[in-house]
Design brief:
By secondary structure, this protein is of the alpha/beta class. Helix content is 30%, strand content 22%. The protein is built from eight helices and eight strands; from the N terminus they run αβααβαβαββαβαβαβ. The structure holds S-adenosylmethionine. S-adenosylmethionine (SAM) binds next to β3 and α8.
Length: 219
């Protein structure tokens, strides 16, 4: 993703009450922040937030947390919040490599990965949000019946992800190489990147994965 520095974005984020500053303090206590016991869903690498803001708007019975690495991108999501009246959405600016610092065992009901950065070089494979290393992280805090849903137009990344799901001991519930011509398109909320790629005619791949047992490692 090409990143444009947005002047003052760090300060804006530090001052915004919708962005959690002390993430570790909320680990295991996110429900206190939301003020209810509704299930918590997260999007990792949410970009400018179109998907998660719309999810939160359409599903007031759920709680949402959007995670984004860069302040310059997260400020764009905050702009969308100006027209958002719900109380079921918060943001974290962090590198997902440290995601286990944010959530306790069984704290999260679902994880969305949308158009994650492909990191095409082999030596960077561990950074892909669908690498075995990340499945092991998700394993630490996703509820036993929780699901991870991943969308991308990048076929090599998708093929890699299908392999990594199984290598990590997870199970594919379903997948498609052409979401928009499949049964899974019903209720699909488009992300910023998805809109762009669909307009170009690129097929969108999607997988849904779960696991039966929780692991022990957070690598
Ligand atoms: N999900 C959005 C969409 O579909 O429109 C944005 C997709 S964009 C290609 C990938 C986003 O993931 C970028 O905003 C990037 O900064 C973020 N990202 C990449 N690696 C990350 C990481 N390790 N932790 C948190 N965010 C990350």
């Amino acid at each position: 993703m090409r990143l444009r520095n947005v002047k003052g974005s760090r300060e804006t984020i530090a001052a915004n009450e919708r962005v959690i500053q002390d993430v570790a303090a909320h680990k295991g206590r996110w429900h206190e922040l939301f003020g209810n016991d509704h299930p918590i869903f997260i999007e990792v690498g949410m970009g400018k937030g179109k998907f998660i803001v719309e999810m939160a708007r359409q599903n007031p019975q759920n709680n949402y947390i959007g995670i984004e690495k860069y302040s310059s991108v997260l400020v764009r999501a905050l702009e969308k919040m100006e027209a958002f009246e719900g109380n079921n959405l918060w943001f974290i600016r962090m590198d997902a490599e440290y995601i286990c610092d944010a959530f306790e065992k069984d704290e999260v009901s679902g994880i969305y990965l949308n158009f994650s950065d492909p990191w095409p070089k082999d030596r960077h494979a561990k950074r892909r949000l669908t690498s075995v290393q990340f499945w092991n992280r998700y394993d630490q805090f996703l509820k036993p019946d929780g699901r991870v849903i991943f969308k991308t137009d990048n076929r090599p990344l998708f093929d890699f992800s299908l392999e990594q799901v199984e290598a990590a001991g997870w199970t594919l519930e379903n997948y498609t190489f052409d979401l928009h011509h499949s049964e899974y398109v019903h209720g699909n909320i488009m992300t910023e990147y998805e809109e762009r790629f669909v307009a170009k005619g690129n097929p969108i791949c999607r997988l849904c994965a779960y696991r039966d047992k929780q692991g022990q490692i957070c690598g």
